[in-house]
Amino acid sequence: MKIILLSGGSGKRLWPLSNDTRSKQFLKLLKRPDGQYESMVQRVYRQIRSVSQDSQITVATVASQMDSIKSQLGDHVDIVLEPERRDTFPAIALACAYLQFEKECPLDEVVMVMPVDTYAGSDYFDVLVRMKNVVESTKSDLVLMGINPVFASPKYGYIIPTKGKSKENMIENAIPVAGFVEKPDEHAATKLIAKGAFWNGGAFAFKLGYLMSIVGGHFKDKGLSPNSFEDMRANYSLLEKTSFDYAVVEKAASISMIPYYGAWKDLGTWNTLTDEMEDKSVGMVKTNRSTVNTHIINELSIPIIVLGARDMIIAACPDGILVSDKEESAKLKDFVDDVDSRPMYEEKRWGNYKVLDYVHYENGSKSLTKHMVIQAGKGISYQCHSARDEIWTITDGTGVVLIDDIARSVSRGDVLHIAKGQKHSIRADKMADLHFIEVQLGDDLVENDILRFGETDVVEHQ
Amino acid sequence: MKIILLSGGSGKRLWPLSNDTRSKQFLKLLKRPDGQYESMVQRVYRQIRSVSQDSQITVATVASQMDSIKSQLGDHVDIVLEPERRDTFPAIALACAYLQFEKECPLDEVVMVMPVDTYAGSDYFDVLVRMKNVVESTKSDLVLMGINPVFASPKYGYIIPTKGKSKENMIENAIPVAGFVEKPDEHAATKLIAKGAFWNGGAFAFKLGYLMSIVGGHFKDKGLSPNSFEDMRANYSLLEKTSFDYAVVEKAASISMIPYYGAWKDLGTWNTLTDEMEDKSVGMVKTNRSTVNTHIINELSIPIIVLGARDMIIAACPDGILVSDKEESAKLKDFVDDVDSRPMYEEKRWGNYKVLDYVHYENGSKSLTKHMVIQAGKGISYQCHSARDEIWTITDGTGVVLIDDIARSVSRGDVLHIAKGQKHSIRADKMADLHFIEVQLGDDLVENDILRFGETDVVEHQ
């Protein structure tokens, strides 16, 4: 199976846990069968593998999410980086170009697309496999999954199946699609559901060649005919900022749909997310018996005591603390927009960091202190900063540091001074994670004060 | 005026803000007339000064509170350190011995005693002055303040005034006392109040000689007659662990009382404390309109957003986070008793520190990172640690560091390595506070791993 996972939408509807780099799909709040926590991304990945061990998975995303994906899925997926956030059509087009040009995937191979933040039962993935069978065995340009609509939501697109056609004649019980209605009001949605319409959950199957010919048409309109992945990527901004539904689905000649009646949820708000959390508390939390229907997530290293809270969500992490009535949590977005948005915790390709302290002194200078964790065998890119000095104190593990092209081994207790403009990198040895405390000093400690010289300049430590 | 302030009772009823070193009386949550925040200790000090500018104030307390008192009241008070926590009689006895032997206070001078965590109106202090007048002008051994009892509390002692005696004949309208009832049940308390009893709020006035003769009697029973403050202090553990009420008040021959009808409250629980807070929110806090009757105190440097909370207390500081229904907050004590009690923030004589990070690594080693603030002109004692190395990164200010008897000037960006066993100290220059990040490394980072060599060994920096 060739599957494209669309990983989009950073946002603050799950603040403080989600921020500009940490989207909801990366929050490890769901329970695996073995009792460990996993994120939505990890759950979808595990579910795909369980129906098809050798699926080839490509994640289409933007640079700010790359480190989280690598950290959570490792090297088991290909990542296609959108040069900028556009919409689902350009994203799927780029991922398909990657499959055609980089992976040399035949044009008659079936490609499936689904959002990476889909929260569904395992039978969802059985339907995906059936969608593939339909594309392979019929003349359908496109096969969609129809999600059983459980209420008259004005948020979704609706798929209207044809009536009267005998389903028995169709492969996999697929139903030809008569049309679509985008985001109807609640009244119209109720009528659509009464007539047998389904939600469009953004899962599609098609042949690679079908999509590439549409993409080719779009470029031809601009006088271009890119014939490599890099060519496509370089001209990405020329692709219209439009949805796959609008650019492809609504124009397809022959579409069918397979209904899915299992669990399917949008875990994009605190209210829906906590509904799916098996544990009421995560992290260092104490509550009493009069705390009822309250979910508490504590990612800080200090305890939270909750007494007599009812129907609340309490979430604490290095970015901030939320205490909200569950119903009121829908209003969160209005309040977080002007919260200082410097992420205080980030998962990176090489590990993670937590901001411990950020102080503006009276004289205008600043200090920022981080706890850095470099995963065993990994390293940060060779880089330098123009406006800050850094002092690193190694607190655990061993590794090798490169400063201005001079390498040295480091271990617990070693201190490194990195002056403005000095190139530097660090790599953890293969046996264990490397921890250090980083103190940044300067008048302007901005995140983008970084110049990178590549990823692999640190000599592997023996 | 000679006033002894009793500063006792560390406890966790106001967790996370109060802990073993930070008692409720040091929390800066009350508003001064000028809009700044002050603690109960600072409020009482300010109120005393406003009725008597040249009062001589002595604070009786234990070592763990000394730094907080010095930090909040400066050098304007004398501090008498109880060698161990006993009860109010030994504490008052020691403070009186200090006045007699160290301050050479005449034995016929009037001494007043009051708890430092008294939250009262300014007229309370007018009554104190009147109590002094009564002791000076009558034969009363002891004058008490009778607090107007606003409900039938089973928590207090009750003072029963004599009836029928004409108040007009007494100086300052003082009333002779007929007797006492300690902590009656609610029913008995209701009856006492109906008969005109008052609460005993722990404010007393007496002549120094009167008290010292009682103390002398106690020591004589043990075959001792200490005649210096140090002698008294050395034998402190021989004084019975008993209250002033039991050892002195109930045995006095002639006692009178002045009633006080003004505001008087025990701000010892979150519910009573927040009642007196003028601001609903302190620190980085955002709330919406549906957040009602909710007090939020944020001492962390990350924002708290509160939506739709009703009748709640939310308190966050480096020790932990409390989210509690106001009524339920009375149950807090049961929950905090087994919370890890390492203080994460402490006010010290020389400034303060905040624990930023405390990590136990898999191999058994640990690291602890602090942000230290040394106040301008102040310094820490010359000390060493047996089981940990420390790395200090100066982040702001200038000062002088002494390591193994070698002094050097330090400023922003300097890094100091202090190995196990090395004697060290640091002092901030007079112009500005000195900030540094301290990383402790060791297998056993306990608080009492400290050997002190004195307070003043650091050479003043020019």
Structure write-up:
Two copies of one chain form a homodimer. With 462 residues, the first copy, chain A, is of the alpha+beta class. Chain A has three domains: 2-265, Spore Coat Polysaccharide Biosynthesis Protein SpsA, Chain A; 276-336, no CATH class; 350-461, Jelly Rolls (Sandwich). Chain A is built from ten helices and 30 strands. Chain A has helices spanning 40-51, 63-73, 88-102, 123-137, 186-194, 208-221, 229-234, 244-247, 270-275, 332-336, and strands at residues 2-6, 30-31, 37-38, 56-62, 78-82, 110-115, 119-120, 142-147, 157-161, 175-182, 198-207, 255-260, 264-265, 281-282, 285-287, 295-298, 304-307, 312-317, 320-325, 345-348, 351-360, 366-374, 383-384, 389-396, 398-403, 406-411, 415-418, 424-428, 434-442, 451-452. In chain A, the strands form eight sheets. Chain A has a six-stranded antiparallel beta sheet with strand order 20-21-22-29-24-27. The first copy, chain A, has a five-stranded mixed beta barrel with strand order 8-11-9-10-12. The radius of gyration of chain A is 25 Å and the shape is globular. Chain A starts with a strand and ends in a 10-residue tail after the last strand. Residues 456-462 of chain A have low confidence and may be disordered. Strand 19 of chain A pairs parallel with strand 17 (304-307) of chain B.
